[in-house]
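Morning run. Coffee first, then this:
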Amino acid sequence: MKPTVYLPSMLTIVALAACNSLSSPIISSPRFTTYQAEGDSATVAASLNSFRAALGGILNAPNSPPTDSGRREINWDGVPAAVTNVDTFPLAFFNVNSKRGVLLSTPGTGLRVDSTDFGVSAQFHAFSPKKLFAAVGSDEVVVDFKLSGTNTNGLSTGFGVVFSDVDVAGSTAVALYDATGALIANLAAPAKSSADEFSFIGAVFATPNIARVVITSGNAALNAPVTDVSAGGTKDLVAMDDFIYGEPRP
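And here it is:
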């Protein structure tokens, strides 16, 4: 699928802002290009590679100092065993332990990197095996950017996420905010069309605009005592895999 250049109208922006508790009124939004795909790993990888190229193409190594170009990626697979399969994944891990300019948080009770497909191997599959990521007690994860390894706030040119098991259209979204707290994009991840497929959604701006990202994965907490729609339930439970984003800049 071709990337789409999108300049939201004022009415669209206000409507999106009204749907998100972290939003503030928006006067204008800069132009951005969306990248999305759903399907098998090869299909999603093709869209993801276009997204990477739009961010600058150069992957900056973990723990490398802040720079003014390129991108960073998180695929969870290198997370050490001590903080895998527990509900207390460190919020600052990817700015302190493995410096990539990201602070994580959630309105839930914690975060979890899981190597067991969250115990539901028939439902969740890793895009970059073997680990997946989710909030605990919530379907929401917040990402704040820092200049890598520092306490200085940063801005990114783009952000994208690969999701596992998006069954319901509109259940999963990535909301992007600028440094003033204004919503500048709200991107719905496409639902999969058949079993064992992935979904990708991302956006790229011409200049660094993104200070905060709010990711909504499905419409219920993954660890809640509910059954996914794919197994006859009423809720869409979704896990996350790769995060890809532009190098956080001043």
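Confidence is low (pLDDT under 50) at residues 7-27. Good start to the day.
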